[in-house]
Write a structure and sequence with these properties.
This protein has 209 residues and is an alpha/beta fold. The protein has 7 helices and 7 strands. Strand 4, helix 5 and strand 5 form a beta-alpha-beta unit.
Amino acid sequence: MEKQEIRTFGRRHGKKLSMRKSLLMENILPTLYPTESEKPDILEIGFGAGEHVRELANINPNKIIIGAEPFENGVAAMLSAICDQDNNIKPEYKNIRIFPDDVRLILNENKFKFSEIWVLHPDPWPKARHEKRRLLSAEFLNSLGTNMAPDGKIIIGTDHWEYYDWILNQVKDSNLTVSDSTQETIETRYQKKNMAQTTETKYMILTKK
């Protein structure tokens, strides 16, 4: 049976990579693929340039953190940030793993049970005709729930308030429930841009029903 291709609506490639970033993609990235034997504990989906993944690595030095990002330039930016001038991984980032593809390929295998899953500033696809492209559908939330530890949690943040309300409606049809919200400001490059021009980022915390 042929493997079903997963359609990812976001960009895969951007501007041409520098020589250093190209070398990191070729030589360092393959060493950072997540493995089942390491029992990764935290997952961030769509990490952008990796600012928050690096923060998670710093505050959880004894846990393996997976960052999943299909956009090549974002992966390259992360690699550049976690490696020193000699292209060795800095000690404080030894617990980071990178999956440079659609996270559903990991979730469909159901190999890991995460205590935390982070989704910060997913593309809101605000046009009505693009609504089906939104990541955080009830189906996707169910998949996240299946890959959570029994006491795990999902932290979602978006500055697009209509999308926030849409996600809440999706949660009602999922195996998850809203357990809390937080006013914490999580600094990422996307958050600083505030593309939706709202006054704050809204967050929700989901747990299993």
